Amino acid sequence: MSKLKEKLKEKIDGWRPRTTKLLKEHGDKKISDVTIAQAIGGVRGVKCLVTDISYLDPMEGIRFRGHTIPETMAALPKVDDGGMPYVEGFLWLLLTGDMPTKDEALEMVADFKKRAKTPGYVFDILKAMPKDSHPMAMFPTAVLSMQKESEFVKAYNAGTSKMDYWESTLEDSLNLLARLPQIAAFIYRWKYKDGNIIDPNPNLDMGGNFAHMMGIGKPYDDVARLYFILHSDHESGNVSAHAGHLIASALSDIYYSISGLLNGLAGPLHGLANQEVLRWIQGVMDKMGGKIPNEEEMKKFVWDTLNSGQVIPGFGHAVLRKTDPRYQAQREFCQKHLPDDPIFKFVDGLYNVVPPILEEQGKAKNPWPNVDAQSGVIQWYYGLKEYDFYTVLFGIGRAMGVCSNIIWDRALGYPIERPKSVTTAMLEEMAGIK
Length: 434
Ligand code: CMX
Prior knowledge:
Elements: H1 3-26, H2 36-40, E1 54-57, E2 61-64, H3 69-75, H4 87-96, H5 102-115, H6 120-128, H7 135-145, H8 151-157, H9 165-192, H10 206-214, H11 220-230, H12 239-249, H13 254-265, H14 273-287, H15 295-307, H16 325-337, H17 342-361, H18 372-381, H19 390-411, H20 424-430
Antiparallel strand pairs: 1-2
The chain binds carboxymethyldethia coenzyme *A.
């Protein structure tokens, strides 16, 4: 048994009695009420999901297994001195709740290398898709095509006990996560670099290998590591995480679940916002003949966008009520590596311009920037100008968080999800409307 599996087994055995006790002895305690506004309004703020992988405080932002982003980045074992942590080590933290030692992180790196070979048919399927398919249509298609590899399905068909479902789900998760960087890089180079594919380098870690297969030099390996970690998890109510959990709750395997989460991530109100930010900025710069607008001109563009009935991409959030620490982490990276980049300066300028305007408009509950505001800037700077591809990077990270959640869902025996609907007439009756 691998060290990771051994550790997880110990954690799961220790955790199960807590869930059982809550259910058996305190199952009827109320944790939330639901109003008509919440039922019509996307279940916003209703506490009805459980996850221990991460927690999102509206004012503080995300904590991964109890650690803020700066704490996480400081404590994880690093690839190079002063650089970013091993993504594989971060997955150990998400899964077990414990910070890995350098040896544990390196064991994960070695395990990923063994699993990283993507079946050839995946590339044939991608090649058969129209060249102008969106990368976020290609990515989930590739994931779904590997469903026949599922170890969970084999274990389920062999009559494995429900208590052991998590073990084959862990296998599926590690196999899939190890392959995602190669699939993503293939999509990028097939679509945008004349099909000039770069083979993986078996000596590199996940972030390093992704940069290598993308054909982008240092410090893009650190950019990749930073991205995958920052985008991994944001508790379980956001569209991508919830979609993954919901699909898996029917005992659909990891390939079905992760493919589904990617489809949800592809919406412009969610993960696609990172490409929308760049599209919007480029549109503004085109109108200005390539010049960066000054503050007054920026204000005008922001108001024009709002007045035309569109949202300002990269700003606002359903839960957060302050600047997203994932935005801050990327801003710090920009300040260190690309302080004079004109697009960074533009986005940084928006930080002063957009929030007061959103406040004046009075609709958005959170006027501050989210994770997507800054992320395209870094990619653009390192030569990844095909902004349709940005959400794929988000997807690689998010898959780690959702796989971790699904493994624990299985370990704790969470049932199939099935909220109850009511009709409009029932709501009217409850509201006392005749
Ligand atoms: N620009 C303009 N209007 C905005 C806005 C923004 N950035 N953010 C919120 N609003 C508007 C909403 O559209 C809504 O308007 P209506 O009442 O006309 O429907 C109103 O303000 C209230 O919305 P809210 O309660 O503050 O926000 P929601 O929880 O409904 O939505 C989000 C959250 C992220 C979808 C929204 O802020 C938004 O559309 N932002 C821009 C897109 C974006 O950056 N998405 C990425 C979020 C992070 C991620 O998941 O990747």
